[in-house]
């Protein structure tokens, strides 16, 4: 490589790094709402010399401008040199989904040049006019043959159904990318009775994305000692002022202190969530569980060391933009209602004043008083899901509706499934399932398709 090329490459690399740093700063300024919005790049491909093409381009921009995404519109690309330039521009941004608008025919080579180099999930928007269909079919075939994730959207430039499809795919692309960036802290291993939840770290990272970080109990002890009294009192006051607290002072104090220690550990290791085996020696020593972590959004909590289930909670957060509910199967009522149970759940699943910080014992043989976050989950459509298998290559998906939620002693969630309960039982695969807010079965199916996971 000649000196001029080295200098040019170093300059481009520095610019990309700077833009990514600027993006992170914007995330810090605008917060979680900004972070949870997919980023979409619109690249029109073709010439805009004629009035009808210009009109279609403006209409397409208007449709995309109404979506719940961060939209970046680029200038039309009509030759290979412009394609190389726009690829560089897109790389400066943290883009989740590429939308190629095929303005007319004879552009397949340019479409492939752009999407092939960027290597991110792509939607090719095919217009009904000007031979857009034929050339785009060629581009889509070539890109799929190269292993790229390509979705086709067909419709006029003002077709809002196309916009809906793009928003739908953008959430999947957003989840796909964030899952690959996620980091899960694992503490205490897997609860031994969860025999169907065993996994191999490399398989989980390859299939789902999250990297596993092992945290020692010595680190918990160290961070517990580091919790400042002023921070403890401040957080006790903040939680008490936000939620209904029905726990004795000492138990609540231990729970908040343990939560602050885990929060600090999550910040140190840049964790998206913590899977902690909350039975056995950890409870005996610390007399607390991570369940108070459900009050905030600093990190997600995986029950009983179930890392795969925690990965699916992360998927709910990224795919739906809302927390899911991790639960055990409890019983089936006479009318066929499936009842799920857990000690706790995310406060965001209900309004704050309907969330109780309640008390409960850990197990029959260890009746230690513990504090749990118990939301009242409202009636709504939901999707149940669980990834399973040693290769993590299958997901059981079912849809239904919440019909009841009791939180007196634990969180008991009643769900009326759309399918026959026996059909559900014929495919049941694990004690732990994730309840996703809303009917997101199609989004989960697309995520599975991209990651070579069979839907059952």
Key structural traits:
456 residues, alpha/beta, Rossmann fold, five-stranded parallel sheet, 19 strands, elongated, disordered N terminus
Residue runs with pLDDT of under 50 for 5 or more positions: 1-34
* Strand line-up of the largest beta sheet: 11-12-17-16-15-18
Give the strand content.
15-25%
Return the average pLDDT rounded to an integer. Answer: 89
The level of helicity is: 40-55%
What structural class is derived from the secondary structure elements?
A: alpha/beta
What gyration radius follows from the Cα positions, in whole Å? 25 Å
State the domain count.
Answer: 3
Categorize the overall geometry: elongated
| Biggest sheet features | 6 strands, antiparallel, barrel
Enumerate how many helices there are, as a single number. Answer: 14
**How many β-strand stretches?**
19
Between the first and last Cα atoms, what is the distance in angstroms?
52 Å
Please describe what this structure looks like.
The protein is an alpha/beta fold and 456 residues long. It has 14 helices and 19 strands. The protein has helices at residues 3-35, 51-65, 80-91, 108-118, 132-145, 160-181, 201-207, 217-226, 229-242, 249-269, 281-286, 307-319, 421-427, 441-450; strands at residues 39-45, 70-73, 97-102, 122-126, 150-154, 183-187, 211-214, 244-245, 273-276, 300-303, 325-332, 338-342, 356-361, 369-374, 381-388, 394-406, 411-417, 432-437, 454-455. A six-stranded antiparallel barrel has the order 11-12-17-16-15-18. Strands 2-1-3-4-5 form a five-stranded parallel sheet, with helices on both faces. A four-stranded parallel sheet has the order 7-6-9-10, sandwiched between helices. Helix 4 (108-118) packs parallel to helix 5 (132-145).
């Amino acid at each position: 490589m000649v000196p001029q090329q080295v200098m040019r490459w170093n300059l481009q690399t520095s610019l990309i790094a700077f833009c990514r740093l600027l993006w992170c700063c914007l995330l810090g300024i605008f917060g979680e709402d900004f972070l949870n919005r997919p980023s979409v790049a619109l690249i029109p491909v073709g010439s805009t010399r004629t009035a009808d093409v210009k009109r279609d381009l403006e209409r397409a921009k208007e449709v995309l401008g109404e979506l719940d995404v961060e939209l970046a519109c680029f200038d039309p690309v009509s030759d290979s040199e412009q394609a190389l330039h726009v690829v560089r521009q897109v790389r400066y941004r943290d883009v989740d989904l590429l939308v190629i608008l095929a303005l007319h025919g004879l552009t397949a080579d340019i479409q492939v040049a752009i999407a092939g180099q960027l290597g991110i999930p792509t939607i090719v928007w095919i217009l009904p006019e000007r031979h857009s269909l034929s050339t785009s079919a060629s581009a889509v075939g070539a890109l799929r043959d190269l292993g790229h994730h390509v979705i086709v959207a067909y419709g006029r430039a003002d077709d809002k159904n196309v916009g809906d499809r793009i928003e739908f795919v953008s959430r999947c692309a957003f989840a796909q990318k964030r899952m690959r960036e996620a980091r899960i802290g694992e503490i205490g291993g897997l609860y031994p009775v969860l025999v169907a939840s065993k996994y191999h770290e490399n398989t989980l990272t390859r299939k789902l994305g999250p990297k596993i970080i092992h945290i020692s109990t010595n680190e918990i002890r160290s961070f517990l000692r580091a919790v400042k009294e002023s921070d403890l009192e401040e957080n006790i006051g903040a939680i008490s002022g936000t939620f209904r607290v029905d726990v004795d002072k000492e138990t609540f104090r231990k729970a908040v202190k343990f939560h602050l220690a885990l929060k600090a550990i999550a910040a140190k290791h840049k964790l998206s969530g913590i899977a902690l085996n909350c039975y056995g020696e950890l409870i005996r020593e610390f007399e607390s569980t991570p369940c108070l972590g459900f009050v905030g959004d600093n990190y997600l909590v995986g029950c009983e060391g179930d890392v795969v289930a925690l990965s699916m909670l992360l998927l709910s957060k990224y795919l739906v933009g809302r927390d899911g509910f991790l639960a055990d199967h409890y019983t089936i009522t006479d009318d066929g209602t499936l009842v799920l149970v857990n000690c706790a759940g995310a406060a965001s699943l209900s309004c704050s004043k309907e969330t109780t910080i309640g008390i409960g014992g850990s197990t029959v043989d260890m009746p230690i008083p513990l504090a749990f976050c118990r939301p009242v989950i409202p009636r709504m459509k939901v999707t149940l899901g669980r990834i399973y298998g040693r290769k993590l290559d299958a997901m059981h998906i079912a849809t239904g509706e919440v019909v009841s939620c009791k939180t007196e002693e634990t969180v008991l969630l009643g769900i009326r499934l759309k399918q026959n309960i026996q059909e559900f039982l014929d495919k049941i695969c694990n004690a732990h399932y994730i309840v996703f807010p809303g009917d997101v079965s199609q989004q989960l199916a697309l995520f599975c398709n991209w990651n070579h996971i069979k839907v059952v």
